[in-house]
TrEMBL record:
Residues 1-27 have a biased composition (Gly residues). The keyword Transmembrane helix applies. This is Alpha/beta-hydrolase family protein. The keyword Membrane applies. Residues 230-251 have a biased composition (Polar residues).
Amino acid sequence: MTGHRPGTGGGGDGSADGSADGSGDGGPADRDGRAAVGERRIVRRWPSWGALAGAVVFYCLSFTPSLLPRPWYLQAAAGAITAAFGYGIGAFLGHLTRACGLRLEGRARPVARWALVGVGSAAVVTATAWSVRWQGDLRRAVGMDPRISWWQWALVLPVALLLGALLVLCARTVRLGTDRLRAVLGRAVPNWAAAAGAAALATVLVVGFVEGFLLRGLLDLAERGAALTDRSTSPGTVRPTSPTLSGSPASYESWDSLGAKGRDFVGNAPTAAQISGFTGRPAKDPVRAYVGLRSVDGTSFAEGARTGAGLRERARRAVAELERAGGFERKVLVVLGTTGSGWVNEKIAKPVEYLYDGDSAEVAYQYSYLPSWISFLTEGEATDAGQALYDAVRARWSQLPAASRPRLMVAGESLGSYATERAFPGGVPQLTEQTGGALLVGPTPDNPLREDVTDARQPGSPVWRPVYQEGRNVRFAQLPSDFAVPADAPWEQTRVVYLQNGSDPVVWWEPALIWRKPQWLEGQRAHDVSPTMRWYPLVTFWQVTCDLAASEAVPEGHGHRYGLMPAEAWARIAPPAGWTEQDTDRLVGYLADHP
């Protein structure tokens, strides 16, 4: 023999040339030498044409419109990851084609090569050019300037090529290691058993490295960094002096123990004078009770800090702090689910205090140092945290005389809405029976109550604005006009409001996007979802994943930014006696001017 066919002598995504070294007499020693050379070339061989074709197709699809406009570096990441998937799929299909004996021979090979180079290059250029227009349309849909800097967008291709090459290099390194292991095992067991064993062991090692070492190590590093940040205090935030606030001199909880987000929560509470400035009536200093992660153990990483016992103890302290500040003597009491590091959105907290002249109480606690987007990976903590706090507050609330109890409500945003929902395993009936109302903003795809409501929606109502049981208790909104959907339908006293934007990737991201077209892309779409967006297997999943990183880099009312819609929602969930639509408009305007 003077050579061997592409794809032999080491397998893989296929070689673009002939034999490994182009020589040899075909003897055993020579074949072993060619196999060794071919094995080394697993890492540095030229990609097969099938792999390149798959990479080009998927790379071009990554430019198609998604939920939100993306900066150039996120587009580069999306292009690299999706191209790597296309590369693998193309390599696999090419391998199957060669295994079936379908090969290009003679002059057809160079013709096919040049055709792929020409068509692929034209496709990449065309997709990049059209993507500028698509991104402009997306930016226009969310109220942004549609113009894009060409010099930045020109960086997408080289950065994507670099990232994609690194991904392929990692995959080939794993492949080389698997082949070496298969060769070792093949000396003692049949080839099929050696191949299966090597593949299984490689999978275990890769998964173990990613989850046990890489992911866990990154999470630990992120948590330690977040723990240091948790000791900081935002500029302008000072220790409160009002006894109705945690962290004050009268509080059971020290100022330092509250954490950065807890200090923000109590430090930004409006005063009675500020509330009176809006209402023109006498007001009270509102109650805000908060317990930080360091409250129980005093350190960042003490054993049991976030176990069930630790959460229950922190919930018990939150109830004690609430009672000390007089929270159970107010007209309304809101249990707030926090997001990751203990953050509470002021635009959810403040409206209730202005609605009720400060005669209100709000309670929350911290269950993690990690920001919400990382805590989402370990949402079990949110599950236990939400239920522990609500159960503790309701247990004490139930002991009060029925005539003097405050109106008990719940609220949460993003992962905080998930934590809130998990406190009601009985679903919407339990939520409406045990509370006087709920506000759930930007829910996650795992929110159990939202999933039940969406699945049981009335036929004909879209998944992004579902109508459940004729809107008697539960309604969804992105705009103020959505509260009137369904039209002329009675809205009972206990009201549950979901605020979810049609373009919010936090709401719509889920692994099923890999293999299934989502319902929010079928039929009528939300007003801020591009009509040119299409679903593609794998591609759309990574597009929406990248959209998560840009979910707050858009104007209010789009993405994961809900602006002052919580004020609109609270005015409908729990309006005080005599409250009018004009009062709501005035409150929204006031909060816009006094953030």
